[in-house]
Specification:
One of its GO terms (molecular function) is transmembrane transporter activity. The protein is mainly α. The protein is built from 5 helices and 4 strands.
Length: 202
């Protein structure tokens, strides 16, 4: 809402950018399935190219890259706001909204890899009698993650005030960097346990 949303005569709704998240999945899924997986299979000499947990871990890495991309874009936006003397005005800065597309694409690819890896892992590794339950629990973690993220966001904003009513006076870039750090910690913990997991034999 505080970026230039004009594209010719069109005024782009800010919420419409989430469609690039979906488009990234639609475009990348066939590329992944038709190109990346066969190449990975030839390199690793294994079925699927990479394991379910490796796929999920790569997805988590893409989420970190998305957060870092968001932090870089917001840092640049705040710099423009300072240079243009708009810090204390709740107005859009002259920076095109399309600079946000890379982070939506990275997040979409990351979510796809993570979700596919997680669902394949539960389907393949869970006991037959618990397969549906494990799939449901896997999806439950996604919703719990959303609640935890909202809680962290609310607490951090309450303590730091990084996201005031006027975002030109805020520090949303620091919030993105914080979530990058938390995501990196999450990836490290995930990698620790994933590296110790032994797949059941077919």
């Amino acid at each position: 809402m505080v970026m230039d949303r004009h594209f010719g005569s069109l005024n782009i709704p800010a919420a419409s950018l989430s469609s690039f998240n979906v488009l990234a999945v639609v475009v990348f899924a066939p590329i992944y399935e038709r190109i990346i997986v066969p190449v990975a299979c030839k390199i690793t000499k294994t079925e699927g190219g990479i394991s379910h947990l490796q796929r999920a871990g790569i997805g988590l890495l893409f989420v970190i890259l998305a957060m870092l991309s968001a932090a870089i874009v917001e840092t640049k936006r705040l710099q423009i706001a300072r240079d243009e003397g708009l810090m204390h005005q709740n107005v859009a800065v002259p920076m095109i909204i399309f600079w946000q597309i890379p982070q939506y694409v990275l997040a979409g690819i990351g979510d796809m890899l993570n979700q596919i890896g997680m669902l394949e892992f539960f389907y393949d590794q869970a006991p037959d009698s618990m397969r549906s339950l494990c799939l449901a629990l896997g999806l439950l973690t996604v919703s719990l993650g959303s609640y935890i993220t909202s809680f962290i966001f609310t607490v951090v904003n309450w303590v730091t005030g990084w996201m005031p009513e006027n975002l030109n006076e805020g520090h949303l870039d620091r919030l993105f960097l914080l979530f990058s750090g938390l995501s990196l910690f999450n990836l490290v913990v995930f990698a620790y346990f994933a590296s110790r997991y032994r797949y059941k034999k077919k």
